[in-house]
Design brief:
This protein is an alpha+beta fold. The protein is 14% helix and 17% strand. The protein has one helix at residues 2-13; strands spanning 53-56, 71-75, 81-86. It has a three-stranded mixed sheet with strand order 1-2-3, with no helix packed on it.
Amino acid sequence: MKNLCVLMILAGCSTAAPSLPPLTEDTCRAADYAQLIGQPATALERVLLMGKVRVIRPGQPVTRDFWPDRINFMIDGSETIADISCG
């Protein structure tokens, strides 16, 4: 019985990783910038970006927080815009 109580207490201490909400719509208006995919990262300097923006390069540490209205620009190893997403 003592072992069972210990297991129940330990089970209550574990935390599960939060799941991200599904993106069912373009909450950050990423589609407005789709023409930038494949262009050099310097193309972002010529675009007026209002609101929350994050530029992510390979190996760069990033936070795991989720903001549906934040636009993420993923830059690849050749300094090209590889992908654009919300979050």
